[in-house]
Design brief:
mainly alpha; Rna Polymerase Sigma Factor, Chain: A; Arc Repressor Mutant, subunit A; 2 domains
């Protein structure tokens, strides 16, 4: 019989009871997802890394008060959202846009084509994908923080509308409307730049 993997909520309760390994498992499960979420919202890799560290420190400090009424992921994304809002409050819109670090300036991983994979995409296809991703990222950053937030939670993080509603503190129908409007705003921003759509 295979051992069933503990849920996030069970791990957090175990950590609450003093099991440090449970926290390490939660960190392992969430670090990449949360980093991507923060990176999409903040537009800056270094800032996302800083907020990620602060986020896990907050989880550590808040462990005694954790109650599993909602999913652990909803609780974590709510903390992350509050930290992002703190960052936004510290920076004006102009400063936030000046601090954008395009993904093209980050260190590049070795591609499958460079490793000799015959089914790997061509360098041209990779470049086109990277350029499209950069255009989408810049269009995301042009949206209001609220629109960006709901879009990232839904389209990039894959949260269900019930979870998004809980993170945003609104009804499920309001979360759906916000996501629809945000998607339309993103499409308009991309169309305006002649990028996509």
């Amino acid at each position: 019989m295979s051992e069933q993997r503990p849920t996030d909520e069970e791990l957090m309760l175990a950590y609450q009871a003093g099991d440090v390994n449970a926290f390490e498992e939660l960190f392992s499960r969430y670090k990449t997802r949360l980093y991507q979420y923060l990176r999409h919202l903040l537009g800056d890799a270094a800032q996302a890394e800083d907020v990620l560290q602060t986020l896990f420190m907050r989880i550590h400090r808040a462990r005694a008060g954790y109650r599993p009424q909602a999913q652990f992921s909803t609780w974590v994304y709510t903390i992350a959202r509050n930290l992002v809002r703190d960052v936004w409050a510290k920076h004006s819109v102009a400063k936030r846009h000046e601090r954008i670090t395009p993904a093209s300036h980050e260190e590049e991983p070795v591609t499958a084509a460079e490793m000799g994979d015959p089914d790997a995409p061509t360098p041209e296809a990779l470049l086109e994908h990277k350029q499209t991703a950069a255009r989408v990222q810049h269009a995301l950053l042009a949206l209001s923080p609220e629109a960006r937030e709901v879009l990232v939670l839904h389209k990039f993080e894959g949260l269900r509308f019930a979870q998004i509603a809980e993170v945003l503190g609104c009804s499920v129908s309001a979360a759906k409307v916000r996501a629809f409007r945000a998607l339309k705003a993103l499409q308009a921003a991309l169309h305006e730049k002649g990028s996509l759509c």
